[in-house]
Amino acid sequence: MFGYVIPDRASLSPEAQSRYRSAYCGLCRRIDALHGLRGRFSLSYDLTFLNILLCSLYEGETPADSGISRCPIHPVHGVLWRSADPTDYCADLSVALHYYNAQDKWQDDHNLLALGYSTLLDNSTAEAAQRSHVDNTAKAGPFRIKSESSVASGVRRIEATCGKLSLKAMESSQGVLSRAAQFLKTAPSGLLERMEQQANEMKQLRQALEKFKAEASLGEARQFLASAKTVKDLHVLATTRNGVDTAELRTMGDFLRDKDPKAVAVIASINGEKITFLAVCGKEAVARGIKAGDLVRHVSAICGGKGGGKPDSAMGGGSDPLKVDDALASVDDFVSEKLG
Predict the structure, then answer these.
(1) pTM to 2 decimals?
(2) Among 21, 65, 81, 223, which is 20 to 30 Å from 323 by CA?
(3) What residues contact 150, with CB distance under 8 A and at least 6 apart?
(4) Strands of the 263-271 sheet, one edge to the other
(5) Which residues pair with 69 in a beta bridge?
């Protein structure tokens, strides 16, 4: 838990070393004032770093105190110390963290020294948990909840900011809203209404596009049906239709199957390296033993894939686009062999 932060004093300038020592001594002094001598044993570099960080962030916003005094560690020569409101928070946090660290050591290793220290800090930890670090809630500034999540059963985790961080977050959010409103050519107050209007327009355009694509697919299906070959009184067609999705393939296939009971059709669609096959058979073709599931498995296998489905409609896929023409060319022979 502790020991991750270690001061590199050799690389610090004399001024930085002085500031570090004053923050260290200031934290030690506040721990003693709040928790007594027993609490001083919790002093660490980690919390000293946090003390320096927080005091720097809130410098000028909270009153600071400094001076020179003696202590049990420096009984002869007085040392410079410096503290501010965040220092009291770090003092309480130092005691609380050491208390729970000692509790963990006792529970994990049955360390008697840890048990004794946690017992010694028990009351101090309770006091630290109950203490407010501002004498007036107005000093905390604006409070903004960032997120809420579940940690365990019956336990919720809330992340929030206050003071300058909340103000910066609100300024950032306001900036995003202003840019969004400018982009949509409306005022921030009318942004939601404008977004709903845009969403409805996009929905209508999408529906119109889908209708147009469906009509175009049916038009192509009619052309395919007109060019079908007759194999033993069945109308067989095999073609390629690139750049279409599964829904378009099904629309074309359903039209061919329902329009002509004698239809036996295979449509291939190539998108990059992905091959999709759709096979459909009309009612009369199915009655004569030609099943779409068997047909799509046959053409998919030629392209290194597999497929299956119902007797009147089935889908499959492949991985070798160079074999698509061979697969489609084999449909006539497949139907002839099945019919004998």
Answers:
(1) 0.42
(2) 223
(3) 156, 157
(4) 229-231, 234-240, 263-271, 274-281, 313-318, 307-309
(5) 79
